[in-house]
Amino acid sequence: MTKPSASTGNRNTAGKRIRETRKHRGMKSMIFLARLQLAGMDISASTLSMIERQNRSLADWELQIFADILRVSPAWLTGKEG
Hints:
0% strand, 434 Repressor (Amino-terminal Domain), 5 helices, mainly alpha
């Protein structure tokens, strides 16, 4: 079994789309972190980076918060919806 690289992991399927969507919307990571905190999800910049690089798993409730802030569905973030 091969170990995932430090740059891209396999702990979640949404990280890549979270990062792409955040950047597409012109949202800097610090603004995104503030919005996450207002929604009840207090994470650090390094944790967000780990999520976006797919090196940290996401709970269902966390995925929903990311989707709400980015104005997309959780299914779209995970690639289950085109």
